[in-house]
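> tool_call: predict_assembly(chains=two)
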Amino acid sequence: GAGVSQTPSNKVTEKGKYVELRCDPISGHTALYWYRQSLGQGPEFLIYFQGTGAADDSGLPNDRFFAVRPEGSVSTLKIQRTERGDSAVYLCASSYQRTIYNEQFFGPGTRLTVL
Amino acid sequence: ELKVEQNPLFLSMQEGKNYTIYCNYSTTSDRLYWYRQDPGKSLESLFVLLSNGAVKQEGRLMASLDTKARLSTLHITAAVHDLSATYFCAVDSPGGATNKLIFGTGTLLAVQP
């Protein structure tokens, strides 16, 4: 079956602009996660959705970052007034939590570059 | 705060040799994961380990978990060039409500012919 998909694959923007990153999880997966990966680092958690609600947004770095999942499937990560420090690969993952493994499957990521 | 440390950070090895990557974590966790990442690609799930003494093997890779020592190992047997990648371990955050993953910094493995 289809895996997690993310669009766009690359996004170049100017400092101060607004961007939206989209994630389409695996069908039937109730849990959705956003992570951010900087060069040479492991992914860092941003936000977790269980269904439509953000169950944990403790990883969002500041109020310029916001994410939604209005119908419990596709999610959009929104970044306002982008800064150069926001440049990273943004990864989305989904999981079917009703197993003991709760294995998270990752999408290909969106590489965001803020000039 | 849960911390996850891997060592070594970089490993250059010859084909046919064996080696082990270590993953230490600072507080109790329910699950430990190993992922592989190729350059410019996303993360591929390799293993999920749940209990003390768990051992899983897939091809030339074998992962084990010691929950008392808070240590997992990823053992590579008779390495081949195709195993060159970055390997991450990750653990569930404590409490279990979120299941967010805390990742190590990764081990860059380069297998030389």
